[in-house]
Structure prediction request, 809 residues.
Amino acid sequence: MSALPHLRWRAARPIAAAWALATLAALAALQGAPGVSRDEAAVLAGTAARGGGERHAAPPLAPSVAAITHALGAAAGLGHARAYRLGSALAGALLSALLAAAAWQLAGPAAAALAPALFWLAPRTLHAGLVATPDLALAALALAAVLAWGRASAAESRARAAWAAGAGLLLGAAVLARADAWTLAIALAAHAAGARALARRTRGAVDAGEVARAGGGAGKVAVAVGAGAALVVLAWPAVLRAGASPWLPPPGGISAPAVALAALPPSILFVFAGGLAQALARIYAAVRSRTRAEVAPHDASGDALLVLAALAALAGSTLAHAPAGARPFLHALPFLALLGARAVVRAAELAWPARRGAVAAALALLVLYPGLRAAMEAFPNGAAAWNELAGGAAGGASRGLRRQDGGEAVGALLREVSARAAPGARIWWPGVADGAVELYGRDGRLRADLVPAEGPEDADLAVVPLDGGSRDAEYRAWAALRTARPSSGVYVDEVPLAFVYARPGAWR
Amino acid sequence: VGLVAREVEVLRSAVRGWGEALRRLWGARPGAARIAAIVFAAGAALSGAASLAAQARLPGRLPSEQDWTALRALLEREARPGDVVALSPAWAERARELLPLSLPVLAARRYAGEDLLGVRRVWLVSLPRAPGFSWEPEQDLLLRGSPTGRPARLGALEVARLDVAFPILPLAFLPDRVARAEGAGADAAREVREVAGAPRPCLVGRAGDGAPLALAFAPLRVGRVIRGHVGAVAAEALPGPARISLFVDAEEAGEAEVSGSGFVPFQIDTGRFAGQLRAVSLRVTLPPPGAELCVDAAALP
Prediction:
């Protein structure tokens, strides 16, 4: 097994390509089903505002990519929602390929097969790949930036500057996807400082070249930060006027880490924790051994890079965002998937060397199948899924956890609304973005004669998402439509996600 | 003595043998890394198996379509005017879609402090095996009434009927009798709004900004007290102390001052007008900056 920084693409190319193609095909095939959340609608609104001043209010990468893929996809005959979301499928394919290649380098072909599956086989991560929000692009760019930084750490002086600049540009692109990605820069700087200290401490065990390569950390950081900052300022000039809001989202409070623990399948969480523990143990062994070199310093340096990147993403987003499932810390998961895949493969080798392949396969099946099953059950409402520690969607609702990202669950009602609403019915959509309703109409998911209403008093029907928060709009619809009885609803594990209310005669 | 000595010797040799075996096993124990790997592999396998078991058990813990149909049939047969359905947990709201229209459905996390106006019997529909289930709603309701008979099991649903010990049967619910309602800047209207996490049928209007919320009602038979609630719409608490003045005809019959969070109750004595058909009005005054208020009131015997 080799260190992370020394990526050898040629060996990993077939499995990386297979994962990329499979991911692209699966995501593209499934992208038509989920509804449009308020966050996704904001991205789509950004595509319409490209060229105007409004686009500068938020990081521009996701709207720009969505606009490009929409122009290409719509010309090729794709539906509007699918075309807008194609960028996420491409980011997903890139992420899978990077994960497979890096995992191959860390722990061989078995890890290459396992690492992307550890990332994808969970309802919320799969859902992130099906919508046009920037979270998945951020995850792919964050992983690419960290891998490039790993190369910079291992390269000779001239190539080192080039790789550091590449890492900086990728990090800048990540910031253009979601502004809180800047926390990864802390991980890279900490890694540069740590790698130098580690190389000095183990001076007797390694060659002088390695010590020299570990030097120059400050220069590497300066090159990366300079390149990244230049890209951000050039591509998003308004960032200088944007103030603190995009950089520091509202605090999620003390419950945010607990919410994070409820968002992913427990077996995958266990493997992630095992991978982190193994990496920390290897770093400790490298530091402690000094001259015995049980773990080579460059291996420990690669481990430290992955650990630091995962922790920076987790700390920066889990503690800084409102608790909203897995989206805030999605970009920590590729690093944890790499470490987890290596932990499974190494555990199988050590536990039963003669049957390591069978043990690894059995472990992978037991770890991955619950997530796959949960993803299939929750589809297309992946953002409504909570894990078995939380008691599923039902336990999450009992604990007051969010039931969806923001209005996307009404997507599952569109077919019925189109089939049963009276001709020309006016529909009130509280909690659903205007852009989402418009997109449903453009895609033919909603009958053309159904008209959006301004308020419940003007409406014949009200389609109300339930996200676990305020229900004031729904109660206003009760009073205006004179009924508290839904005509139809969407449920996950008996938990309602959206209701339709109708005036007498407006629902056939 | 010889027999005992022989037995002791046999015992000694057995103990020595076991000790030797244990020493050999201890000597052949796997290294720390292998033990860690075995523990990790076992933990990963167990967590996966436990997740699968939990997923497989979940449908049996939640009501099926048949269970809901059986509940509907039971309530269509047994329910009477003055009955309501209370859901536990509150999210089990498929009941709204399926139960008879004539039965109001309550879906609150807690019922402590709720007036339950006009309610004589409560059908408590529980999902006792649902994840995160809590007995708190049942505890709250048991303080208000007594269960009749054993709860019925309908698949994953459990249905218990509670007879409310002291039903509060209003002479009139004032929001249903509003004749004129004026707030600061706009007329007030009868709506259903969320206050303190529950739907409240109430009159909604603004108070503060220099003008009170004035509510006049059609003549009604006045009882011993007027009891009501005031809450701020889309806010946790009232912005300051609210003063509620009650007028019977043109005469000020009493006032109350309330403050705090939630749907804050008030009560004004109307004993001297009890049994009389009178015109009643309420005036709610708030200090600036004021707020959109949700106000209900009932004439109680």
